[in-house]
Design brief:
By secondary structure, the chain is an alpha/beta fold. It is built from 15 helices and twelve strands. It has a six-stranded mixed β-sheet, with helices on both faces. α1 links the parallel β1 and β2. It starts with 5 loop residues before the first strand and ends in a 19-residue tail after the last helix.
Length: 453
């Protein structure tokens, strides 16, 4: 397979120092593909790029994706930075719509054709049916799948592989990605669970550089460390998936891990990984990768530096008190969001035309349940409804943020129950009058403190 027939699109969907791991993941992916022989001019990178040069970074201009690992930022070519990393531009780049990104970043798009192989990798926070971006709005599952379908119909690839690192990432393709799409998707988690951060401070093998952030994500480092050490000209996509599955699930125990999932076209997954990630000769670094059994749910990974600072600071010190106050503020904000969402949801359901007394008693149980019913179907029947409900909440109450993205589950279920944006607005107003919602808040985002390193 000729590498001039390969294209790749790598996306880090977050920003901020405590989200270090996502940009480190994407930088590592760039290095892996480049070493594998994929030409730089056919690797498109979207990254906010505020971490390597962050004032918090004790190693300016460097990123590390594993304890003691090499700098993965060196030599990276970034096409879209800062506010240019958003859902609209991502979809345009994926579709190959150069007009839509004219004058933006490098303006490069996937110009792949009917005989080309494409590899897409995304890393960030997510929620049921949505993926995060550094700039609003969210990337919705129906939009991503429509772009993949459009690309396929336009002869934009022969085969496309997409790996997605995010919480509830299985919901992005569940019931949406066709088996005849010539797209093979692998996700870090199913549609109802968190994905996991790894190589975090105070957990497992310590980072000799003393970085106080999670360096990677479990699913991501699993496939990339495999790619660094395996013979990808011999290892198939399915064989890699099995290895990733075992590592992300802690040998199928799922005690500290998630259910990595497969979607789409399976008829060619016994082809070598090198068809999409490059060949072994330049890929094999001799890095075998180690299995660190201690991980942390993605939404709590941003808190790991604060927890570590609290646990390691001297008793009675200002640093310990600072960490304690920051953690307390985060947990208080999260609790406020938890209460607000479920109170508003219950009011909203009561305002629908089909509300019943029996259902009112059960609605909290239904809304808090992890599952959506049929695991083979998409999580919401009306995606425009989901967009409108989330937009209504965020404009009237506050941005959901990285922690609150999980509540797209509740809004999806409300859509399926017949709630529209008008009803949700009325429910929000009622909850505000009760004092359940006390105004816009950061909803449990990380609190910036003097603890930076």
């Amino acid at each position: 397979h000729k590498h001039d027939e390969n294209w790749a699109l790598l996306v880090a969907g977050s920003k901020g120092w405590f989200n270090y791991r996502h940009q480190a993941d994407v930088a590592h992916a760039f290095q892996l593909l480049k070493r594998g022989g994929i030409p730089e001019e056919r690797i498109i990178v979207m990254m906010y790029d505020d971490v390597a040069h962050s004032p918090f970074n004790p190693y300016p201009g460097q990123l590390f994706n594993r304890p003691g690992g090499s700098d993965v930022y060196a030599g990276i070519k970034i096409d879209y930075r800062g506010k240019d990393v958003n859902a609209t531009n991502f979809l345009a780049v994926l579709r190959g719509n150069q007009t839509a990104v004219m004058g933006v970043g490098t303006g490069r798009v996937l110009k792949s054709g009917p005989n080309d192989h494409v590899f897409v990798y995304y890393a960030d926070h997510g929620g049921p049916g949505i993926l995060g971006m550094p700039e609003p709005p969210y990337l919705y599952a129906d939009e991503l799948n429509a772009a993949l379908e459009d690309k396929h119909k336009a002869g934009g690839f022969k085969k496309l592989v997409i790996y997605v690192e995010a919480c509830e990432s299985g919901s992005i393709f569940q019931g949406l990605l066709r088996s005849k799409s010539n797209v093979y998707a692998v996700t870090a988690a199913n549609s109802v669970e968190s994905s996991w951060g790894t190589y975090c401070p105070g957990m497992g093998k310590p980072d000799p550089r003393g970085l106080n952030v999670c360096l990677g994500d479990l699913f991501s480092v699993s496939w990339m460390e495999n790619g660094d050490s395996a013979n990808l000209a011999e290892e198939t996509l399915q064989e890699q998936y099995i290895k990733v599955l075992f590592r992300t699930s802690k040998n199928l125990t799922y005690t500290l891990g998630s259910h990595s999932m497969q979607f789409g076209t399976f008829c060619w997954i016994n082809q070598p990984c090198s068809e999409f990630m490059g060949n072994r000769d330049s890929n094999n670094t001799g890095i075998l990768g180690f299995v660190d059994g201690i991980h942390i749910p993605q939404r709590d990974a941003n808190l790991a530096p604060l927890v570590y600072a609290y646990e390691t600071a001297p008793l009675g010190s200002a640093e310990r008190q600072d960490a304690y106050e920051s953690l307390a503020a985060v947990y208080k904000a999260r609790e406020e969001l938890d209460r607000a969402v479920y109170r508003v949801a219950k009011i909203a359901y009561a305002l629908t035309a089909n509300a019943s007394a029996d259902m009112l008693h059960q609605v909290y149980t239904i809304l808090t349940a992890k599952d959506f019913g049929d695991a083979s179907k998409q999580i919401v029947e009306d995606w425009d409804c989901l967009r409108k409900l989330i937009a209504t909440w965020e404009s009237r109450v506050g941005v959901l943020g990285e922690y609150g993205m999980q509540y797209s589950k509740v809004f999806a279920k409300l859509c399926n129950m017949g709630v529209n944006e008008r009803i949700l607005q009325s429910a929000i107003l009622q909850a505000q009058s009760e004092g359940t919602i006390k105004g816009s808040t950061t909803w449990g985002q990380h609190v910036h403190t003097s603890i930076s390193r």
